Amino acid sequence: MGGSVSPCVFSTWLSVGNVQDAPLxxxxxxxxxxxxxxxxxxGRNFGGSRSCGPESPCxxxxxxxxSCSPDTDDECSPGTPGSAxxxxxxxxxxxxxxxxxxxxxxxxxxxxAGIHRTERGFSSDLTAxxxxxxxxxxxxxxxxxxxxxxxxxxxxxxxxxxxxxxxPHLLWDVEAEDWLVLGFExxxxxxxxxxxxxxDLALVVDAIGDIGRxxxxxFAREWTETRWDKFASDSSEAELFRGDSLLYTxxxxxxxxxxxxxxxxxxxxWPTRGAGFIDPALLVIQFIAAGHTPGSAEKWAERLPAWxxxxxxxxxxxxxxxxxxxxxxxxxxxxxxxxxxxxxxxQVWIDxxxxxxx
Length: 358
Prior knowledge:
Aminoglycoside 3'-phosphotransferase, Chain: A, domain 2, three-stranded antiparallel beta sheet, 12 strands
């Protein structure tokens, strides 16, 4: 209150300065906040990783992480090492990425008036709107450590220029020894509504269609989609998921931002190369989970060429793989309601298609 700055919302009693007396950037890089961080860390036990793995915010093990694909027990993405050694990570509240990135981004932002964290953004160390002289900007920041989470930000940086009007533009990026930071244009909208009576449905389907018409850039040919392979019944089924389409794959209501009568597809953390029907199929699952009948959900998908051109057995195999994937996730986290809802949606879908998973 009154301009006072504290390390986080849980330590408002620990003032480190006041913006009425000094610029925010000076406060967040000053000795008082460094001492406050040390005080907080001394009282906290950093016994296990929170950045990637079981109980992490980057996969189905976290009941708030709906935007993540439930494809693995203990990694942010299949086949990649953890983002950092176990036991060394600290939560965002005590490590304060804001103070670490301010000196790195000031060339692009100018004087910073405030950094406001977003409600979502579990796979990054910081997602926030930066109010500044040259902005505002939407910022995603990640500790520059080898592993799946860093790779996701690198992919997002590489693919953005290829997306055109589909996604907010990446305006600048900074890669330093300790941090990787992306600065995007700010899109002020709301999450899409996928309920059967929503006026957003055509907008979202059209956005998937626009994505389906994108060419696959040469650099993305190495991004082969493999996340569903281990849930296919055999290797021949997994081959049905191969293709040369650029896939978005992170299909969920909060990643489609509605602004008036258009939709932005945000958070391109895991673009891959695969069969073109995969994105429409993921949309079908989301529609069923939102209350559509399987027939209605597939009717919407029929608007998309990649769906119409797909072999029915390929869609069947993918539907079954998704059910196995969500069942495995529910087995690990039986009390997470959204995982159970997704597993139920997949079950309803394969029942509609007459597919068995045994």
